[in-house]
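Figure 6 in text form: structure in, sequence out.
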């Protein structure tokens, strides 16, 4: 198996932000990356950016994806999506960001510890009780 190096053409020292986020595998499609940028979930250098913003090596990017927030430093540019190992070489996550994500993940897991999914579907009697409890909430 061969791995390809990130394409960094010498004539173009920048790449579109939405294209880089897609190539770095932060988002599954370019349209998802563009939507995230337009809704203000991505910042470059502490400022909101447009999808067409030129991203350069050394820029700081903050991207929110679901409940996770990534703060990364751009190490290389690429305009094509490649294997995960190549994508991970495009950026370096800050230590503070990584620790914050791990703490938030541990908190979410701790909040779910008391919940256990039912083993089977509710029977007729249980459905009636559920409906009766639902009526109390509507008062």
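Output sequence:
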């Amino acid at each position: 198996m061969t791995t390809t190096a990130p394409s960094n053409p010498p004539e173009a020292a920048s790449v579109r932000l939405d294209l880089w986020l897609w190539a770095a595998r932060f988002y599954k499609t370019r349209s998802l990356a563009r939507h995230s940028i337009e809704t203000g979930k991505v910042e470059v250098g502490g400022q909101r950016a447009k999808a067409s913003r030129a991203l350069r090596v050394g820029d700081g990017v903050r991207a929110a994806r679901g409940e996770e927030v990534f703060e990364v430093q751009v190490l290389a540019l690429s305009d094509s999506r490649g294997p995960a190992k190549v994508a991970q070489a495009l950026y370096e996550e800050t230590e503070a960001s990584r620790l914050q994500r791990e703490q938030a993940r541990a908190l979410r897991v701790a909040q779910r510890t008391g919940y256990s999914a039912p083993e089977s579907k509710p029977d007729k009697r249980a459905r009636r009780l559920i409906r009766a409890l639902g009526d109390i909430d509507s008062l």
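Caption detail: The mean pLDDT is 86.
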